[in-house]
Design a protein that fits this description.
By secondary structure, the protein is an alpha+beta fold.
Length: about 180
């Protein structure tokens, strides 16, 4: 195609466009106000003393999830596809780090879990394992930490899902946690 042919095609397209737009009229003025594009710069708000509290203080001990001993349990953040939980159970994401909470008190476990999840987020880990034990050494042989850890994890916005680990990864004494990775 030569320059002359190209220029002729452009003229034809312009003529076609003008013909198509011949009967078009502007829209009537609306009653809407158009805002100016100048934006006010944001002013950082000051944090109060409660907001400056450490992450472990924000995790409540209120039990929102009840489980029976030995039950396989899981959590999926609302809005997440069910396939996410299925993939987590099947080991789609490899375990990138572990936290073993055997022998920790409730308060120590909460602090360790918060610090571990914060560090995992910094490292951009996607899947981690938290080993809480089966509670065989505790009073009444009940998994005290298991229930609390599940409830603490549900309170964290960066936890997308969790489920009981496969038998080879700890079974009823551990959970796999899927974390949100910020780019």
């Amino acid at each position: 195609m030569t320059k002359k042919d190209s220029a002729h095609d452009d003229d034809d397209e312009i003529a076609l466009f003008n013909a198509a737009m011949r009967d078009v009229a502007p829209l009537p003025a609306s009653d809407k106000v158009t805002l100016s594009s100048s934006k006010v710069p944001p002013i950082p708000r000051k944090k109060n003393n409660q907001e400056q509290a450490t992450a472990e203080d924000t995790l409540s001990d209120h039990i929102a999830m009840e489980i029976e001993a030995g039950d396989e349990w899981s959590f999926l953040r609302p809005g997440m596809p069910h396939q996410t939980l299925r993939r987590l159970r099947r080991g789609y994401w490899g375990i990138q780090d572990n936290l073993d909470l055997h022998g920790f008190t409730r308060d120590e476990a909460r602090q360790e879990l918060s610090a571990f999840l914060d560090a995992s987020a910094q490292e951009k880990y996607r899947c981690v394992r938290v080993i809480h034990g089966k509670g065989l050494s505790s009073k009444n042989r009940e998994p005290v930490l298991k229930i609390r850890i599940g409830n603490w994890l549900m309170q964290r916005a960066d936890v997308l899902a969790f489920c009981q680990a496969k038998p080879e990864d700890g079974g009823g004494g551990a959970i796999l946690v899927l974390l949100k990775v910020n780019a």
